[in-house]
Amino acid sequence: GDMLELYGTPLEEIPIKVAEIEERNEVVDLVDKLLNDPENSDLMEALDSVVYRIFGITEEERKIVEENNE
Hints:
This protein is mostly helical. 66% of the residues lie in helices and 0% in strands.
């Protein structure tokens, strides 16, 4: 509809991870490179790896994510 209603409880359950400065810089660098070369699958894979590392995603969890992303 025309109204958007947000409740605090569900929003508070969203896992927001604050990365270390080095990890943030790595993400920014990869995103900048991807903006200039969006079809570069190596850059995308590198960015995925950094995000998985930041969130502590295991190899098993990564496989689940990637299988569901196809």
